[in-house]
Protein backbone atom coordinates (compact mmCIF):
# COMPACT_ATOMS: atom_id res chain seq x y z
CA UNK A 1 0.00 0.00 0.00
CA UNK A 2 2.92 2.32 0.65
CA UNK A 3 3.77 2.59 -3.03
CA UNK A 4 0.17 3.38 -3.93
CA UNK A 5 0.10 6.05 -1.24
CA UNK A 6 3.36 7.47 -2.59
CA UNK A 7 1.84 7.55 -6.08
CA UNK A 8 -1.13 9.48 -4.68
CA UNK A 9 1.16 12.00 -2.98
CA UNK A 10 3.30 12.71 -6.03
CA UNK A 11 0.32 12.60 -8.40
CA UNK A 12 -1.40 15.32 -6.40
CA UNK A 13 1.81 17.37 -6.36
CA UNK A 14 2.07 17.07 -10.16
CA UNK A 15 -1.60 17.93 -10.66
CA UNK A 16 -1.33 20.88 -8.28
CA UNK A 17 1.90 22.14 -9.83
CA UNK A 18 0.38 22.19 -13.32
CA UNK A 19 -2.18 24.82 -12.29
CA UNK A 20 0.00 26.40 -9.62
CA UNK A 21 -0.93 28.95 -6.97
CA UNK A 22 -3.77 28.16 -4.63
CA UNK A 23 -4.58 24.99 -6.54
CA UNK A 24 -1.44 23.32 -5.20
CA UNK A 25 -2.85 23.66 -1.69
CA UNK A 26 -6.23 22.39 -2.87
CA UNK A 27 -4.60 19.38 -4.50
CA UNK A 28 -2.70 18.69 -1.28
CA UNK A 29 -5.97 18.74 0.64
CA UNK A 30 -7.58 16.43 -1.91
CA UNK A 31 -4.62 14.05 -1.61
CA UNK A 32 -5.03 14.18 2.16
CA UNK A 33 -8.67 13.14 1.80
CA UNK A 34 -7.71 10.22 -0.47
CA UNK A 35 -5.11 9.01 2.04
CA UNK A 36 -7.53 9.22 4.97
CA UNK A 37 -10.80 8.04 3.40
CA UNK A 38 -9.29 5.73 0.78
CA UNK A 39 -6.31 4.23 2.62
CA UNK A 40 -7.55 4.70 6.20
CA UNK A 41 -4.45 6.63 7.29
CA UNK A 42 -4.60 8.56 10.55
CA UNK A 43 -4.34 12.31 9.86
CA UNK A 44 -1.18 13.95 11.14
CA UNK A 45 -1.38 17.16 13.11
CA UNK A 46 -1.61 20.15 10.74
CA UNK A 47 1.54 22.34 10.75
CA UNK A 48 -0.16 25.03 12.84
CA UNK A 49 2.98 26.82 14.03
CA UNK A 50 4.41 27.00 10.52
CA UNK A 51 1.13 28.41 9.21
CA UNK A 52 0.88 30.98 12.00
CA UNK A 53 4.48 32.14 11.62
CA UNK A 54 4.02 32.67 7.89
CA UNK A 55 0.67 34.42 8.41
CA UNK A 56 1.97 36.85 11.05
CA UNK A 57 5.12 37.69 9.08
CA UNK A 58 3.03 38.32 5.97
CA UNK A 59 0.73 40.56 8.02
CA UNK A 60 3.69 42.65 9.19
CA UNK A 61 5.25 42.78 5.71
CA UNK A 62 1.88 43.64 4.18
CA UNK A 63 1.48 46.47 6.68
CA UNK A 64 4.90 47.79 5.72
CA UNK A 65 3.95 47.65 2.03
CA UNK A 66 0.69 49.50 2.70
CA UNK A 67 2.69 52.21 4.49
CA UNK A 68 4.92 52.64 1.43
CA UNK A 69 7.88 50.91 3.03
CA UNK A 70 8.37 48.31 0.31
CA UNK A 71 8.55 51.00 -2.38
CA UNK A 72 11.07 52.86 -0.25
CA UNK A 73 13.25 49.73 -0.02
CA UNK A 74 13.10 49.31 -3.81
CA UNK A 75 14.16 52.95 -4.24
CA UNK A 76 17.12 52.49 -1.90
CA UNK A 77 18.21 49.42 -3.85
CA UNK A 78 17.90 51.29 -7.16
CA UNK A 79 20.13 54.08 -5.87
CA UNK A 80 22.80 51.58 -4.85
CA UNK A 81 22.75 49.96 -8.28
CA UNK A 82 23.01 53.24 -10.19
CA UNK A 83 26.03 54.39 -8.18
CA UNK A 84 28.23 51.55 -9.50
CA UNK A 85 26.93 50.64 -12.97
CA UNK A 86 30.15 48.99 -14.21
CA UNK A 87 30.01 46.44 -11.37
CA UNK A 88 26.34 45.62 -11.95
CA UNK A 89 26.99 41.87 -12.40
CA UNK A 90 28.38 41.61 -8.87
CA UNK A 91 26.49 44.43 -7.20
CA UNK A 92 23.00 43.52 -8.43
CA UNK A 93 22.86 40.02 -6.88
CA UNK A 94 24.31 41.28 -3.59
CA UNK A 95 21.87 44.21 -3.40
CA UNK A 96 18.96 41.95 -4.31
CA UNK A 97 20.13 39.40 -1.73
CA UNK A 98 20.31 42.06 0.98
CA UNK A 99 16.86 43.52 0.37
CA UNK A 100 15.15 40.15 -0.15
CA UNK A 101 16.85 38.91 3.03
CA UNK A 102 15.52 41.89 4.99
CA UNK A 103 11.98 41.64 3.62
CA UNK A 104 11.69 37.83 3.51
CA UNK A 105 10.20 38.00 0.01
CA UNK A 106 11.38 38.18 -3.59
CA UNK A 107 9.18 41.22 -4.26
CA UNK A 108 12.17 43.58 -4.25
CA UNK A 109 14.01 41.54 -6.89
CA UNK A 110 11.03 41.58 -9.23
CA UNK A 111 10.70 45.36 -8.86
CA UNK A 112 14.39 45.92 -9.64
CA UNK A 113 14.56 43.91 -12.87
CA UNK A 114 13.84 46.91 -15.17
CA UNK A 115 16.52 48.95 -13.40
CA UNK A 116 19.11 46.16 -13.67
CA UNK A 117 18.43 45.61 -17.38
CA UNK A 118 18.61 49.35 -18.07
CA UNK A 119 21.75 50.06 -16.02
CA UNK A 120 23.58 47.07 -17.52
CA UNK A 121 22.94 48.18 -21.09
CA UNK A 122 23.77 51.82 -20.34
CA UNK A 123 27.15 50.78 -18.93
CA UNK A 124 27.91 48.39 -21.81
CA UNK A 125 27.52 45.25 -19.69
CA UNK A 126 25.77 42.27 -21.25
CA UNK A 127 22.35 42.34 -19.44
CA UNK A 128 22.22 38.53 -19.44
CA UNK A 129 24.97 38.49 -16.83
CA UNK A 130 23.31 40.39 -13.95
CA UNK A 131 19.78 39.28 -14.83
CA UNK A 132 20.68 35.58 -14.79
CA UNK A 133 22.35 35.68 -11.38
CA UNK A 134 19.80 38.01 -9.78
CA UNK A 135 17.13 35.33 -10.19
CA UNK A 136 19.29 32.86 -8.24
CA UNK A 137 20.33 35.44 -5.63
CA UNK A 138 16.75 36.33 -4.75
CA UNK A 139 15.92 32.66 -4.16
CA UNK A 140 18.96 32.13 -1.94
CA UNK A 141 18.14 35.24 0.08
CA UNK A 142 14.62 34.05 0.80
CA UNK A 143 15.75 30.78 2.41
CA UNK A 144 18.36 32.68 4.46
CA UNK A 145 15.89 35.27 5.75
CA UNK A 146 14.80 34.73 9.38
CA UNK A 147 11.26 35.81 8.50
CA UNK A 148 10.56 33.94 5.26
CA UNK A 149 7.96 31.22 4.85
CA UNK A 150 10.67 28.66 4.08
CA UNK A 151 12.50 29.48 7.31
CA UNK A 152 9.24 29.10 9.22
CA UNK A 153 8.96 25.57 7.84
CA UNK A 154 12.54 24.77 8.87
CA UNK A 155 11.91 26.02 12.40
CA UNK A 156 8.88 23.75 12.68
CA UNK A 157 10.83 20.72 11.44
CA UNK A 158 14.02 21.12 13.46
CA UNK A 159 12.84 22.63 16.74
CA UNK A 160 11.92 19.16 18.11
CA UNK A 161 15.56 18.18 17.40
CA UNK A 162 16.79 21.10 19.55
CA UNK A 163 17.99 23.00 16.49
CA UNK A 164 16.69 26.55 16.56
CA UNK A 165 16.47 29.56 14.28
CA UNK A 166 19.97 30.84 14.99
CA UNK A 167 21.50 27.39 14.38
CA UNK A 168 19.91 27.34 10.93
CA UNK A 169 20.85 30.94 10.09
CA UNK A 170 24.52 30.66 11.03
CA UNK A 171 24.86 27.89 8.46
CA UNK A 172 22.54 29.13 5.72
CA UNK A 173 23.43 32.83 5.59
CA UNK A 174 27.16 32.32 4.84
CA UNK A 175 26.40 29.29 2.66
CA UNK A 176 23.95 31.16 0.45
CA UNK A 177 26.22 34.20 0.22
CA UNK A 178 29.02 31.88 -0.90
CA UNK A 179 26.70 30.50 -3.55
CA UNK A 180 25.69 33.96 -4.78
CA UNK A 181 29.32 35.12 -5.09
CA UNK A 182 30.24 31.92 -6.96
CA UNK A 183 27.25 32.36 -9.26
CA UNK A 184 28.16 35.99 -9.93
CA UNK A 185 31.71 34.99 -10.83
CA UNK A 186 30.35 32.50 -13.35
CA UNK A 187 27.77 34.96 -14.72
CA UNK A 188 30.43 37.65 -15.20
CA UNK A 189 32.03 35.41 -17.84
CA UNK A 190 28.84 34.51 -19.69
CA UNK A 191 28.69 35.38 -23.37
CA UNK A 192 30.60 38.09 -25.18
CA UNK A 193 30.72 41.77 -24.29
CA UNK A 194 28.04 43.70 -26.15
CA UNK A 195 30.55 45.50 -28.36
CA UNK A 196 32.02 42.13 -29.41
CA UNK A 197 28.82 40.11 -29.78
CA UNK A 198 28.13 39.62 -33.51
CA UNK A 199 24.49 38.62 -32.96
CA UNK A 200 23.79 41.74 -30.93
CA UNK A 201 25.69 44.01 -33.34
CA UNK A 202 23.74 42.51 -36.25
CA UNK A 203 20.44 43.27 -34.51
CA UNK A 204 21.63 46.84 -33.87
CA UNK A 205 22.55 47.24 -37.55
CA UNK A 206 19.11 46.00 -38.58
CA UNK A 207 17.43 48.45 -36.22
CA UNK A 208 15.96 45.64 -34.09
CA UNK A 209 17.38 47.01 -30.84
CA UNK A 210 15.63 50.12 -29.51
CA UNK A 211 17.94 53.08 -28.87
CA UNK A 212 18.95 53.84 -25.32
CA UNK A 213 16.58 56.25 -23.64
CA UNK A 214 18.23 59.21 -21.97
CA UNK A 215 16.92 58.41 -18.53
CA UNK A 216 18.20 60.03 -15.39
CA UNK A 217 17.39 58.94 -11.90
CA UNK A 218 15.14 61.35 -10.05
CA UNK A 219 15.19 61.00 -6.32
CA UNK A 220 11.74 60.07 -5.10
CA UNK A 221 10.17 61.56 -2.05
CA UNK A 222 8.73 59.25 0.55
CA UNK A 223 6.59 60.11 3.52
CA UNK A 224 8.27 59.75 6.92
CA UNK A 225 5.76 56.99 7.66
CA UNK A 226 7.15 54.87 4.79
CA UNK A 227 10.68 55.10 6.19
CA UNK A 228 9.45 54.46 9.72
CA UNK A 229 7.61 51.31 8.61
CA UNK A 230 10.86 49.87 7.22
CA UNK A 231 12.70 50.68 10.44
CA UNK A 232 9.99 49.06 12.57
CA UNK A 233 9.92 45.95 10.38
CA UNK A 234 13.70 45.56 10.56
CA UNK A 235 13.66 46.10 14.32
CA UNK A 236 11.12 43.30 14.57
CA UNK A 237 13.35 41.03 12.51
CA UNK A 238 16.34 41.91 14.71
CA UNK A 239 14.27 41.19 17.82
CA UNK A 240 13.44 37.71 16.53
CA UNK A 241 17.13 36.96 15.94
CA UNK A 242 18.00 38.26 19.42
CA UNK A 243 15.31 36.15 21.08
CA UNK A 244 16.61 33.13 19.19
CA UNK A 245 20.23 33.84 20.10
CA UNK A 246 19.61 34.57 23.77
CA UNK A 247 16.81 32.37 25.17
CA UNK A 248 17.16 34.20 28.49
CA UNK A 249 15.43 37.20 26.92
CA UNK A 250 12.24 35.18 26.55
CA UNK A 251 9.86 34.79 29.51
CA UNK A 252 10.24 31.53 31.45
CA UNK A 253 6.88 29.77 31.69
CA UNK A 254 5.44 26.58 33.13
CA UNK A 255 5.30 23.88 30.43
CA UNK A 256 3.80 20.69 31.83
CA UNK A 257 5.40 21.13 35.22
CA UNK A 258 8.80 22.32 34.00
CA UNK A 259 9.92 25.91 33.64
CA UNK A 260 11.07 26.66 30.08
CA UNK A 261 11.59 29.78 27.95
CA UNK A 262 8.71 30.71 25.67
CA UNK A 263 8.95 28.64 22.47
CA UNK A 264 10.41 30.41 19.42
CA UNK A 265 7.37 29.87 17.15
CA UNK A 266 5.12 31.69 19.62
CA UNK A 267 7.79 34.36 20.10
CA UNK A 268 8.02 35.01 16.36
CA UNK A 269 4.25 35.14 16.02
CA UNK A 270 3.87 37.67 18.84
CA UNK A 271 6.74 39.87 17.69
CA UNK A 272 5.35 40.08 14.17
CA UNK A 273 1.84 40.86 15.41
CA UNK A 274 3.25 43.64 17.59
CA UNK A 275 5.25 45.00 14.64
CA UNK A 276 2.17 44.97 12.41
CA UNK A 277 0.15 46.77 15.09
CA UNK A 278 2.77 49.47 15.64
CA UNK A 279 3.18 50.04 11.89
CA UNK A 280 -0.57 50.49 11.43
CA UNK A 281 -0.89 52.88 14.38
CA UNK A 282 2.23 55.03 13.98
CA UNK A 283 2.49 54.96 10.18
CA UNK A 284 -1.20 55.78 9.71
CA UNK A 285 -1.89 52.76 7.51
CA UNK A 286 -5.28 52.25 5.92
CA UNK A 287 -5.97 48.71 7.17
CA UNK A 288 -8.04 47.90 4.09
CA UNK A 289 -4.98 48.40 1.88
CA UNK A 290 -3.03 45.65 3.63
CA UNK A 291 -5.12 42.84 2.18
CA UNK A 292 -5.04 44.48 -1.26
CA UNK A 293 -1.24 44.45 -1.51
CA UNK A 294 0.76 41.93 -3.52
CA UNK A 295 2.77 40.82 -0.48
CA UNK A 296 -0.32 39.91 1.53
CA UNK A 297 -2.06 38.17 -1.37
CA UNK A 298 0.90 36.04 -2.42
CA UNK A 299 1.77 35.31 1.20
CA UNK A 300 -1.69 34.08 2.10
CA UNK A 301 -1.68 31.85 -0.97
CA UNK A 302 1.58 30.43 0.37
CA UNK A 303 -0.05 29.75 3.75
CA UNK A 304 -2.80 27.66 2.17
CA UNK A 305 -0.40 25.82 -0.12
CA UNK A 306 1.89 24.89 2.77
CA UNK A 307 -1.13 23.78 4.79
CA UNK A 308 -2.42 21.37 2.15
CA UNK A 309 0.91 19.94 0.97
CA UNK A 310 2.60 19.66 4.37
CA UNK A 311 -0.44 18.01 5.97
CA UNK A 312 -0.65 15.44 3.18
CA UNK A 313 3.09 14.71 3.26
CA UNK A 314 3.26 14.44 7.04
CA UNK A 315 0.29 12.07 7.12
CA UNK A 316 1.82 9.72 4.55
CA UNK A 317 5.25 9.76 6.20
CA UNK A 318 3.91 9.15 9.72
CA UNK A 319 1.73 6.25 8.60
CA UNK A 320 4.64 4.49 6.89
CA UNK A 321 7.53 5.44 9.16
CA UNK A 322 8.57 1.85 9.95
CA UNK A 323 8.50 0.72 6.32
CA UNK A 324 10.39 3.80 5.14
CA UNK A 325 13.08 3.33 7.76
CA UNK A 326 13.51 -0.39 7.05
CA UNK A 327 13.70 0.02 3.27
CA UNK A 328 15.89 3.04 2.60
CA UNK A 329 17.15 4.40 5.90
CA UNK A 330 20.49 2.56 5.77
CA UNK A 331 21.36 3.87 2.31
CA UNK A 332 20.30 7.45 2.98
CA UNK A 333 22.03 7.54 6.37
CA UNK A 334 25.28 6.25 4.84
CA UNK A 335 25.05 8.59 1.85
CA UNK A 336 22.97 11.60 2.94
CA UNK A 337 23.97 13.54 -0.19
CA UNK A 338 21.66 11.20 -2.14
CA UNK A 339 18.69 12.95 -0.56
CA UNK A 340 19.82 16.20 -2.20
CA UNK A 341 18.63 14.89 -5.56
CA UNK A 342 15.18 14.09 -4.17
CA UNK A 343 14.83 17.61 -2.72
CA UNK A 344 16.09 19.09 -5.99
CA UNK A 345 13.60 17.10 -8.08
CA UNK A 346 10.63 17.98 -5.89
CA UNK A 347 11.37 21.71 -6.05
CA UNK A 348 11.78 21.58 -9.83
CA UNK A 349 8.23 20.25 -9.84
CA UNK A 350 6.70 22.49 -7.16
CA UNK A 351 8.79 25.68 -7.62
CA UNK A 352 8.32 26.85 -4.03
CA UNK A 353 10.98 26.79 -1.32
CA UNK A 354 8.55 26.63 1.58
CA UNK A 355 6.37 23.92 0.07
CA UNK A 356 9.37 21.83 -0.98
CA UNK A 357 10.85 22.12 2.51
CA UNK A 358 7.50 21.22 4.06
CA UNK A 359 7.22 18.14 1.85
CA UNK A 360 10.80 16.85 2.03
CA UNK A 361 12.46 17.89 5.30
CA UNK A 362 10.11 15.85 7.56
CA UNK A 363 10.71 12.89 5.25
CA UNK A 364 14.46 13.36 5.61
CA UNK A 365 14.17 13.41 9.40
CA UNK A 366 12.04 10.26 9.29
CA UNK A 367 14.60 8.51 7.06
CA UNK A 368 17.33 9.25 9.54
CA UNK A 369 19.23 11.75 7.41
CA UNK A 370 21.44 13.66 9.87
CA UNK A 371 20.04 17.06 10.77
CA UNK A 372 23.36 18.65 9.84
CA UNK A 373 23.08 17.18 6.34
CA UNK A 374 19.47 18.32 5.92
CA UNK A 375 20.35 21.88 6.89
CA UNK A 376 23.41 21.78 4.65
CA UNK A 377 21.34 20.68 1.66
CA UNK A 378 18.57 23.20 2.37
CA UNK A 379 19.64 25.36 -0.64
CA UNK A 380 18.48 22.48 -2.87
CA UNK A 381 14.94 23.85 -2.44
CA UNK A 382 16.06 26.60 -4.83
CA UNK A 383 16.03 24.41 -7.92
CA UNK A 384 13.12 26.09 -9.67
CA UNK A 385 15.64 27.85 -11.93
CA UNK A 386 15.82 24.52 -13.81
CA UNK A 387 12.71 25.20 -15.88
CA UNK A 388 12.50 28.75 -17.30
CA UNK A 389 8.91 29.24 -16.22
CA UNK A 390 9.11 31.43 -13.11
CA UNK A 391 7.86 35.00 -13.20
CA UNK A 392 11.30 36.48 -12.56
CA UNK A 393 12.83 34.47 -15.42
CA UNK A 394 10.11 35.26 -17.95
CA UNK A 395 10.14 38.94 -16.98
CA UNK A 396 13.94 39.13 -17.24
CA UNK A 397 13.81 37.78 -20.78
CA UNK A 398 11.07 40.26 -21.72
CA UNK A 399 12.89 43.27 -20.22
CA UNK A 400 16.24 42.62 -21.90
CA UNK A 401 16.05 44.76 -25.04
CA UNK A 402 19.42 43.38 -26.21
CA UNK A 403 17.93 39.85 -26.34
CA UNK A 404 21.04 38.38 -24.70
CA UNK A 405 18.91 36.91 -21.89
CA UNK A 406 17.06 34.09 -23.56
CA UNK A 407 15.38 30.73 -23.44
CA UNK A 408 17.13 28.40 -25.89
CA UNK A 409 15.69 26.23 -28.62
CA UNK A 410 15.84 23.19 -26.36
CA UNK A 411 14.16 25.01 -23.44
CA UNK A 412 16.70 23.84 -20.86
CA UNK A 413 19.61 25.68 -22.49
CA UNK A 414 18.44 29.00 -21.07
CA UNK A 415 20.39 31.88 -19.54
CA UNK A 416 19.48 31.00 -15.95
CA UNK A 417 20.57 27.35 -15.95
CA UNK A 418 24.31 27.52 -15.24
CA UNK A 419 24.28 30.52 -12.86
CA UNK A 420 21.52 28.74 -10.95
CA UNK A 421 23.41 25.45 -10.84
CA UNK A 422 26.69 27.06 -9.79
CA UNK A 423 24.96 29.13 -7.09
CA UNK A 424 23.03 26.18 -5.69
CA UNK A 425 25.96 23.73 -5.83
CA UNK A 426 28.32 26.16 -4.09
CA UNK A 427 25.69 26.94 -1.44
CA UNK A 428 25.08 23.24 -0.75
CA UNK A 429 28.79 22.43 -0.51
CA UNK A 430 29.34 25.37 1.83
CA UNK A 431 26.22 24.38 3.76
CA UNK A 432 27.47 20.83 4.36
CA UNK A 433 30.84 22.12 5.58
CA UNK A 434 29.39 24.86 7.79
CA UNK A 435 26.77 22.54 9.28
CA UNK A 436 29.51 20.13 10.33
CA UNK A 437 31.53 22.97 11.84
CA UNK A 438 28.68 24.67 13.72
CA UNK A 439 26.27 21.81 14.41
CA UNK A 440 28.29 18.61 14.05
Overview of the structural elements:
The chain is mainly alpha-helical. The protein has one domain (2-439). The protein is built from 20 helices and two strands. It has helices spanning 2-19, 22-38, 48-66, 69-83, 88-103, 107-122, 128-144, 149-158, 165-187, 198-205, 224-245, 264-282, 287-290, 294-319, 321-334, 338-350, 353-367, 371-376, 391-399, 417-439; strands spanning 252-255, 258-261. Strands 1-2 form a two-stranded antiparallel sheet. A hairpin with a 2-residue loop joins strand 1 and strand 2. The mean pLDDT is 87. It is found in: Cell inner membrane. InterPro entries: Anaer_Dcu_memb_transpt.
Helix percentage range: over 70%
Multimeric state of these chains? Answer: single chain
What structural class results from the helix and strand content? mainly alpha
Strand content: under 5%
CA-based shape: globular
- List segments where confidence is low: pLDDT < 50 over at least 5 consecutive residues: none
Largest sheet: 2 strands, antiparallel
Order of the strands making up the biggest sheet: 1-2
SS field, number of helical segments? 20
Number of domains: 1
The sequence of SSEs as H and E is HHHHHHHHHHHEEHHHHHHHHH
Mean pLDDT across all amino acids: 87
Question: What is the CA-atom radius of gyration, in angstroms?
Answer: 22 Å
Give the strand tally. Answer: 2
Distance between the termini: 37 Å
GO molecular function: C4-dicarboxylate transmembrane transporter activity
InterPro entries: Anaer_Dcu_memb_transpt
Membrane topology: Multi-pass membrane protein
Keywords: Cell inner membrane, Cell membrane, Membrane, Transmembrane, Transmembrane helix, Transport
Amino acid sequence: MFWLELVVLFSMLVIGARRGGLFLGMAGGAGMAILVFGFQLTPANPPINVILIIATVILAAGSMQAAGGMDYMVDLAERLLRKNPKNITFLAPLVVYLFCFMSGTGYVAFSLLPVIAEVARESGVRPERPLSIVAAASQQAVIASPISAATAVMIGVFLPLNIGLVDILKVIIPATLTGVVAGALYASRMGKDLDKDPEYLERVAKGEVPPLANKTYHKKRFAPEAKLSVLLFLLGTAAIVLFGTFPGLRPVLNHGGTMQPLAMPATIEMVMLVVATIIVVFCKVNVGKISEGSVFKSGMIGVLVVFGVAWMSETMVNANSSLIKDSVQAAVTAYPWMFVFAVFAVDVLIASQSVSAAAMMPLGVMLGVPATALIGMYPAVNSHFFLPTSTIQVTSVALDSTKTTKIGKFVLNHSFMMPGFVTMAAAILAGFLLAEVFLG
